[in-house]
Design brief:
With 326 residues, the chain is of the alpha/beta class. It folds into two domains: 183 residues, 3-Layer(aba) Sandwich (Rossmann fold); 128 residues, 3-Layer(aba) Sandwich (Rossmann fold). The chain is built from twelve helices and 14 strands. β13, α10 and β14 form a beta-alpha-beta unit. α3 runs parallel beside α4. The longest helix has 15 residues. The protein is globular, with a radius of gyration of 19 Å. The termini are far apart. 49% of the residues are buried.
């Protein structure tokens, strides 16, 4: 095994997928000669050549559209958008075409493509470089939305996404790209999509998160242990389709739920998860569901970024509130 950062795990997964299947191709802005703005594709051009690793113009609509055409003709394109805030031009292609291709052709065609992007805040980036875009894509039937939170899950979930016969939006928390290393075996084994992962067992409260917030929640769970509170941590990982069963089983066990995401509160996926819990596990709840999220405002510029993003301390305070509810 080799210790990898999350961005190195993404690179390793891309390389493995390209080695095992010549239909896998990489395209996007600066993915070739520069190896991507975060170096996620570094070395792939030299290894596989310009026919399979292609730099594109600065045109996100075209990147998504070309990928759909390639996928419809038997390729497995993996397209990169440089930053999450630049994904909005792809919504037309992804929602109106990628997500509908199987239905439109009555199963004659599918769209085995992956749209990757660095995602979320926490790196002091300028405007349009720190958005949380998961809700836009998760609302569209026919699209999978996957967000890894560790190097191993990045490697294995990306391999599974590339092998999936339908389109996957794969959002990589840029704050975690080089935050930590983890041993990852480059064995080509995927990890199930459409599944949440229980990262930590507990009995008093369920903490639900994805992306970079998973790290904050794990830190909060450790701090809560020192207070005698046992917190279970669930990493959602695939936001669409949502593995509600894993979440419900955890909440039925603990009786309390705190949902954490860095996207704005209103319309965030935390509201959907809360609704599922209220519909199916209401009688198990010992306290109201609590959400810890970003604010309903534009992600602020670097000096205020830390005030916007939920922290482990915010999660700890939310858990104290649900534990104190009578």
């Amino acid at each position: 095994m080799t210790e990898l950062t999350l961005v190195e795990a993404v690179n390793r997964a891309l390389r493995h997928a390209m080695e095992e299947d010549e239909r896998v191709i990489i395209l996007g802005e600066d993915v070739g000669a520069d190896g991507g703005v975060f170096r996620a594709t570094v070395g792939l051009l030299e290894r596989f050549g310009p026919d399979r690793v292609r730099d594109t113009p600065l045109a996100e609509t075209a990147i998504a559209g070309m990928s759909i055409g390639l996928a419809a003709q038997g390729f497995h394109p993996v397209a990169e958008v440089q930053f999450d805030g630049f994904m909005f031009p792809t919504l037309d292609q992804m929602i109106n075409h990628a997500a509908r291709l199987r239905t439109r052709t009555r199963g004659r065609l599918s769209c085995p493509m992956v749209l990757r992007a660095p995602y979320g805040g926490g790196i002091h980036a300028p405007e349009h470089h720190s958005d949380s875009v998961e809700t836009y894509f998760a609302h569209a039937p026919g699209l999978r939305v996957v967000i890894p939170s560790s190097p191993e899950r990045a490697y294995r979930l990306l391999l599974s996404a590339i092998r999936d016969p339908d389109p996957v939006v794969f959002l990589e928390p840029k704050r975690l790209y080089r935050a930590a290393k983890e041993e990852v075996a480059d064995d080509g084994a995927g990890m199930p999509l459409d599944r949440c992962f229980a990262l930590r067992q507990g009995t008093d409260a369920t903490l639900i998160a994805w992306g970079a917030m998973t790290a904050e929640v794990l830190a909060a769970a450790q701090a809560l242990e020192d207070e005698g509170i046992s917190a279970e941590v669930v990493d959602v990982a695939t936001l669409k389709p949502l593995d509600a069963d894993t979440i419900l089983r955890s909440v039925e066990k603990t009786g309390r739920a705190v949902i954490v995401h860095e996207a704005p509160l209103t319309g965030g996926l935390g509201g959907e998860i809360a609704a599922r819990i209220a519909e199916s596990a209401l009688l198990s709840l010992l306290a109201p569901i609590r959400r810890v999220t970003g604010y309903d405002c534009v992600m602020p510029l670097p000096r205020l970024e830390s005030s916007y993003l939920p922290s482990a301390a915010d999660v700890v305070e939310a858990v104290r509130e649900v534990m104190a509810f009578k």
